[in-house]
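Appendix B, record 7
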Amino acid sequence: MKVKLAVDTACVGMNSETPLQSQQWLTEKELARHLNVSQRHLVNLRKTGLPHILLGVSVRYKLAEIEAYLCGNRRLSSHVERKRRQVNTNLGGLL
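Structure tokens (predicted):
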């Protein structure tokens, strides 16, 4: 529960754009460039719930929805490290 609250608090100030900017629709190529990921990675993210709309064969992403999705699905690396240490401790230091 603490993790969820920390993520929500960290994302509160994300929507500082004007209403017009938050309503912007991006192509797959534009969003990939914006997020600095490959277009193939966006395809994989769509399969796991990344919000998008299909216009015929074209895919569009609403910038505000993408930011909200990323904020809600954010994982902090410190939690991964803590979990790894717990596994190592449980295995008696074998790792």
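Remarks on this record: Residues 1-10 have pLDDT under 50 and may be disordered. The helical segments are 2-11, 19-22, 28-35, 39-47, 63-72, 77-90.
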